[in-house]
Design brief:
Elements: H1 63-68, H2 73-98, E1 100-104, E2 130-134, E3 148-152, H3 155-161, E4 166-173, E5 178-184, E6 187-192, E7 195-196, E8 213-216, E9 221-225, H4 235-238, E10 241-242, E11 246-255, E12 261-262
Antiparallel strand pairs: 1-2, 2-11, 3-4, 3-11, 4-9, 5-6, 5-8, 6-7, 9-10, 11-12
Length: 263
């Protein structure tokens, strides 16, 4: 006679035998129609893609690679260097032609504002000042009185000053104005349309001693003078500067280092 089973007892699966044999399967409840779930196959081992399966793709860093990509490596490097050097030269030339250009002060006509190198007459410095001229500023604005400008010398200047090329002077008279040179106490002063022009950049001992003159500035022309009036060959000698001869306005002294300044 079997012992009565406790109605609240929970059945547990039989323990596997200790002899190493597999445990019996868990019995399905009676009347259940669900079939045992199939065991999924094992996942394949993970592997990195094999680089040998596909040929490497060439990456183009810039458009030139598309042109030289089929060339040998050494030839591609040579072409790249040539293009870089030519491009750099083109940029420098473009900047000099349309933006900024350097100039050296060769004479004492602009002393003491801009120095020239001794032992030239009237020069105060050991080294000549080197300046930068803004070549595009007059495309957007008109020249003003007091601007220190670089300009192509007119034919009369080449004939009377014995020098050509480019000059650096200060604009004194504007188109349509009357520029007068008058003597006061043995020194010459500038008058614009009858009004004396204040010139703090002129040292008293660098003023000239005349003669007194009057100049009527034509339209589209400018009257220029050097700050060292006693040693400047300027519009008093050879006339006016056509507007188209103006190259640019001096805005910076960049050499020597102790003379670096903006104006």
């Amino acid at each position: 006679m079997t012992e009565p089973r406790d109605r609240w007892a929970v059945e547990t699966p039989p323990e596997p035998e200790k002899d190493g044999s597999e445990a019996p399967e868990w019995p399905m409840p009676e009347g259940s129609k669900e079939s045992p779930r199939p065991v999924p196959p094992p996942a394949p081992p993970f592997s990195w893609p094999n680089s040998e399966d596909e040929p490497p793709k060439h990456e183009f860093h810039h458009p030139l690679d598309r042109v030289t990509g089929s060339l040998p490596r050494r030839l591609r490097i040579a072409v790249d260097w040539i293009v870089t050097i030519v491009g750099a030269i083109a940029i420098v030339l473009a900047i000099k032609a349309w933006v900024v250009n350097p100039y050296r002060i060769p004479s004492s006509s602009m002393e003491p504002t801009l120095h020239c190198a001794r032992p030239a007459t009237g020069c105060e410095a050991r080294f000549s000042d080197r300046v930068l001229a803004n070549r595009f500023v007059y495309r957007f604005s008109d020249p003003e009185r007091g601007d220190v400008v670089v300009f192509e010398t007119p034919p009369q200047a080449k004939a009377k000053c014995g020098a050509g090329g480019t000059f650096v002077k200060r604009i004194i008279g504007l188109p349509g104005e009357t520029v007068g040179i008058r003597l006061r106490r043995g020194a010459a002063f500038v008058y614009i349309d009858g009004q004396r022009l204040e010139e703090p950049y002129i040292e008293q001992d660098r003023r000239d001693i005349g003669p007194g003159e009057r100049f009527r500035v034509p339209l589209d022309h400018y009257f220029v003078m050097g700050d060292n009036r006693a040693q400047s060959c300027d519009s008093r000698v050879w006339g006016f500067v056509p507007e188209e001869n103006l190259i640019g306005r001096v805005f910076m002294t960049y050499w020597p280092p102790n003379r670096i300044s903006f104006r």
